[in-house]
Every structure is written in structure tokens, then in C-alpha cells.
Amino acid sequence: MTPHRADVLVSGLAFPEGPMFDDAGALWWSEILGGRVSRRDSDGTIMRLPAGGKPNGLALSAPGCVLICDGELNTVRSLDVSTGALDTVAGPFDAPNDLAFDAAGNLIFSCPGSSRTEPTGYVCCLAPDGSLSTIADGLYFPNGVALAADGATLFVAETYRQRVWAGRWDGVTRQWSERQARAETTPGFNGPDGLAMGADGTLYVAVFGSGCIDIFDADGGRIGAVPTPGRNPTNCAFDPSGRLGLVVTEAEHGEILSFPTLGHGPQPFRALGAAVLAA
How far apart are CA 208 and CA 127, in angstroms? Predict the structure, then answer.
């Protein structure tokens, strides 16, 4: 694969995670060891907001409202960007990690807890009406969560088995069926972390400990890898505009990287204004 240029957007971060783009095109991320959530506008201006705990995955639920998986407080929380107010949306859980909305406004999130050596990790779904269900369990550190562009396939990384699961997702019944281990990642110190979908349906996987982003086709075949400057990419997200390409949070050097030649991804799903998921 042709080498791709990596531009450093932000440095000096304390274990960055959870990259996402809001509807205005601003880039957001969290710092697990810094207890912060930050935003970088298109002109490079950075705004930092204290979040406490250990903020990890982020998702935009409504304009001005960011949802946070907090692995220390064991809750999913909402952050009102205009006031800085933090509220608990749901919990307690076992160290919620990453999250994504589906087309029906359901919030899907992973809860790995301490499941590195025992299969005690699980994946939850929080419906817009506030009902909660477990859609998968018995996992070794479920981690990154992503949906295909049409919302019909759900992907979940299982870090300590170095694989990514894929299965049919039904947002009405909130059932994840026909699951199979779709992708086996590059061997590393840990394994697959965050996930991102490309516009062409390819799956990009941040492989923590391997210094690369693995790329898989729709059938789960590994079609390439993009090296990262540090060994520990934690997560990745596509800039829907294509300007920044694939954005990667990297923990060894505490940086946010941009791979502008990797194109863009589909627009993410939002919460459809569901009151239970708003601040």
C-alpha cells in the first residue's frame, strides 16, 4: 500500500481517545489520564473542558451535547458544551469504553471492565425511551464500536482476542444477530481498539500496541495497514468533509494524527433528539 502522510494536529496529550466530529466539522477528543474533553475548530482553535473521571469514547447526541463513556465513574454522562454542566445519562456499568448511535437513535456501547483474562465483557444498548438491554456478553475486553453506513451491520472489537466481530443489527428489536469473527488484526501487545468505517465500506481498526491502522474489506479480508508514528493508536474517526481524512488518537506520544489522503467516511448517526439522551 502507498505510504500515507501523517500530520500531527495536537500534541502533549494524556492518553487521548474518542475522536469524533460534530455537525459544524469541529474535531472532539477525550484524554483518559487528563480528565478532559476538547474541541479543535477548523481554524485550529482548541477549547478544553474539564470532565473528571476517565473520559473515553465520545458521541454527539444533540447540538451542544456530547455523551461520554467514563471508565472510572462507570457511567455514560452528558456534557453541555455551552455551560460545562455534566449529568449522568445511565449507569452504573463496568467501565464503559466506546459508543455509537444507530439510525433509530439507540446508543450502543461496550463495557470491558477487567475482562482481559476472563470473558466478562459485554455490550449494551440504551434505547431513546430509556430502556436498557445487553446485546452481547462473554467477551474478552469489548472495545471499539462502529456501524456500517446503512446501519445494518454492527462491528465490535474484542481486544484480547485480536478480532473484530460483525453481525446483523436491527435497531427496532435491538438485536445483534448472525455474529461472526469478521477480522483478525495484526498481532500486537494488546489488539484492536477503536474502529472507523470508510465511505467505500472498508473497516479501519486502530491496533493498540502494533503501531498501525489495519484495513479490512467488506468480507473481513485484511487489505493493508497504515503505520502510525507511535505504537499505541487508540481510536480513529473519519472527517466527513474529507479535509482531515482519517484522524487517529495515539497514546504513546500523546498525539492526534491526521491522514488526509485516506479520504472520508459516512455521516455518523445521531440521537434523533431523544430526551433521555440529552443534557
Answer: 30
* pLDDT of 275 strictly over 50: no
Q: What is the pLDDT of residue 279?
A: 39
pLDDT 10s digits, 110-130: 999 999 999 999 999 999 999
Exposure of 230 by Cβ count < 10 A (0-12 exposed, 13-18 middle, 19+ buried)? Answer: middle
Angstrom distance (rounded) from CA 132 to CA 71: 18
Q: Which of 188, 34, 159 is nearest to 97 (CA)?
A: 159
* Residues 158, 144: Cα–Cα separation, whole Å: 8
Mean pLDDT of 22-39: 96
Which top CATH class is 7-277?
mainly beta
* H or E element, residue 86: strand 86-90
Interatomic CA distance for residues 237 and 244, integer angstroms: 10
Give the type of residue at 120.
Answer: T
Interval 150-208: pLDDT, tens = 999 999 999 999 999 999 999 999 999 999 998 888 876 789 999 999 989 999 999 99
Sequence-distant (≥ 6) Cβ neighbours of residue 81 within 8 angstroms: 39, 49, 64, 65, 66
Q: Which of 80, 78, 56 is nearest to 69 (CA)?
A: 56
124 exposure class (CB count in 10 Å sphere: 0-12, 13-18, 19+)? buried
Reduced to 3 DSSP states, what percent helix, strand and coil does the chain have, rounded to the nearest 5? 5, 50, 45
Q: How far apart are CA 97 and CA 95, in angstroms?
A: 6
Q: What's the distance, CA 214 to chain centroid?
A: 15
Mean of all residue pLDDT scores within the chain: 93
Q: What is the value of pTM for the model shown?
A: 0.95
